[in-house]
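Quiz preparation item.
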């Protein structure tokens, strides 16, 4: 009966990698959002006609060719894209009438805001929010993956813009601009009708919104009066109403993101005079902790995650403030973004001070698409990030009794003979020894789950890594995982189910520090009970139970809850059928 311990060790080095500019048709000024699925990609933003007009593009051949999508004539902008089932949703605005602005005017405003370091103004201008009264919030849908977009539903008249969006189950949440203070709108009928979800907060500006795999919602921004602005975080647990917290040490929160298994990360600017980004995280939506992140002379504009269980693989889009002005850089993290690998491609070092990056989309852990603008056009960059023959999805270590269990999975494999497991002890000064070998699957496009059990025997810090061998003898090393092994650690714990995702069955491990009445229950995202796995009095000890989903249980994210006499623990699982 040992506490579950999981920790991923990450690199913090600078590296160069290859970014491939995509050939987007001319006419766009700013690209704000991108969504990708295999060879299909859709991107949206705005350009110029007689006024700011919406732009959307689609590729069906992995980016070889991009074609303009169909938009309503009055479309002003699509700010954000999300997907639900086979439909793409878009949040943005429509033009009520043409103001016949010169494109030079707003471009000069953007340049001036960037040169002055006015990132709040820059954020609004990039979405086409000029402060005029010639536009209104609009919701878009596309049933052909972005080839054509159409309006759906009507907004309250006071909503001037729909901004960032989060979709969980059949509920859509959108941050909207309105006089007196921003709000979150919600729709339960695919955007046909809308109601205010958050209460009115005077002086509120909302910049981003996200959800995890359990329908918990988090929105961030700032609340301002005539003297100062302070960062604010609003949260809505799936079982409760909205509540908020103001952070005096933060002037504004710019972005928030969540992993599928319930970790939330929010980034904002320090309220001091120096430029300094602050990074906070929480697992329970109540207790936010500040990460030890070096944010000096950095502005974190966007955090995006790969949405898979047991992985927080992340991309952060950052402006690094230099003597020559802000320079875009990208931080890629193998897991949670308090640490990671900075990827600074040569493309970003060409002296183009007008380049701004707005959004990123990660797919299958090994590719990323990024959109923004440069001094001439909308910008879309693609990077595969990895050319390894084996696509490693996750790698973790947990302690159970006197054993350490290693779990990893691959999304695909090419000529994979297998994995050599190497271990290093804290006293070995980084020297690794081989402790085992697990055969691979050769070549497969199917997801494969692996595990290995080690018995170290001595308390201390251990590092494990995988050396993957091809049949021709070539090998690749994974990044290590580290675990503090201690036989004296005893606690009630709920482990991650394994495998995850799964289709037929998964195993859940849990331990009890003392005898207790125990229930282990599976729920769907709406809080409906799906299955009771355990409902009995159990003595202290360590337990494993298998969960086999019913035939009528559909694909999606579910959560399982362990309740004892003393506490309640929750984890996420992902069923794929």
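Solution:
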């Amino acid at each position: 009966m040992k506490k579950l311990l999981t920790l991923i060790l990450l690199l913090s080095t600078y590296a160069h990698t290859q970014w491939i500019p995509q050939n987007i048709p001319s006419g766009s000024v700013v690209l704000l959002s991108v969504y990708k699925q295999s060879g299909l990609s859709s991107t949206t933003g705005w350009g110029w006609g007689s006024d700011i007009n919406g732009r959307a593009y689609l590729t069906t051949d992995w980016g070889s060719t991009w074609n303009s999508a169909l938009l309503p004539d009055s479309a002003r902008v699509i700010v954000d894209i999300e997907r639900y089932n086979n439909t793409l949703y878009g949040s943005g605005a429509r033009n009520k009438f043409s103001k016949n602005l010169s494109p030079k005017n707003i471009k000069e405003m953007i340049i001036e805001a960037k040169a002055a370091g006015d990132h709040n103004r820059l954020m609004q201008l990039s979405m086409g929010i000029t402060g005029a009264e010639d536009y209104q919030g609009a919701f878009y849908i596309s049933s052909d993956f972005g080839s054509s977009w159409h309006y759906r539903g009507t907004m309250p008249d006071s909503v001037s813009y729909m901004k960032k969006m989060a979709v969980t189950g059949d509920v859509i949440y959108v941050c909207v601009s309105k006089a007196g203070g921003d709000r979150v709108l919600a729709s339960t009928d695919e955007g046909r009708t809308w109601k205010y979800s958050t209460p009115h907060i005077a002086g509120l500006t909302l910049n981003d919104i996200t959800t995890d795999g359990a329908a918990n919602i988090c929105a961030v921004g700032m609340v301002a009066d005539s003297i100062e602005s302070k960062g604010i975080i609003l949260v809505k647990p799936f079982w409760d109403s909205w509540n908020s917290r103001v952070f005096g040490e933060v002037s504004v929160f710019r972005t928030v993101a969540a992993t599928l298994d319930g970790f939330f990360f929010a980034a904002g600017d320090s309220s001091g005079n120096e430029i300094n980004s602050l990074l906070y995280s929480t697992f329970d939506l109540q207790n936010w902790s500040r990460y030890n992140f070096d944010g000096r002379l950095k502005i974190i504009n966007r955090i995006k995650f790969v949405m898979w269980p047991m992985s927080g693989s992340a991309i952060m889009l950052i402006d690094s403030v230099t003597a020559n002005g802000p320079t875009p850089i990208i931080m890629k993290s193998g897991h949670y973004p308090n640490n990671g690998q900075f990827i600074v491609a040569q493309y970003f070092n060409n002296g183009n001070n007008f380049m701004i990056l707005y959004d990123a989309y990660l797919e299958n852990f090994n590719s990323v698409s990024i959109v923004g603008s440069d001094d001439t056009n909308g910008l879309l960059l693609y990077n595969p990030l990895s050319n390894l023959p084996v696509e490693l999805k996750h790698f973790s270590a947990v302690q159970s009794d006197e054993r350490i269990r290693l779990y990893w999975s691959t999304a695909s494999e090419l000529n994979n003979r297998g994995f050599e497991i190497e271990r290093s002890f804290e006293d070995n000064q980084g020297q690794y020894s081989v402790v085992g070998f697990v055969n691979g699957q050769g070549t497969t496009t199917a997801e494969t789950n692996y595990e290995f059990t080690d018995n170290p025997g001595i308390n201390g810090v251990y590092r494990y890594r995988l050396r993957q061998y091809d049949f021709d003898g070539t090998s690749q090393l994974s990044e290590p995982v580290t675990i503090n092994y201690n036989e004296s650690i005893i606690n009630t714990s709920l482990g991650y189910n394994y495998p995850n995702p799964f289709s037929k069955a998964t195993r859940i491990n849990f331990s009890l520090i003392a005898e207790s009445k125990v229930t282990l229950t599976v729920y769907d995202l709406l809080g409906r009970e799906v299955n009771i796995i355990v409902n009995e009095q159990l003595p202290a000890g360590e337990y494993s139970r298998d969960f086999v989903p019913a035939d009528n249980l559909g694909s999606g994210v579910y959560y399982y809850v362990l309740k004892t006499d003393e506490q309640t623990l929750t984890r996420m699982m992902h069923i794929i059928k």
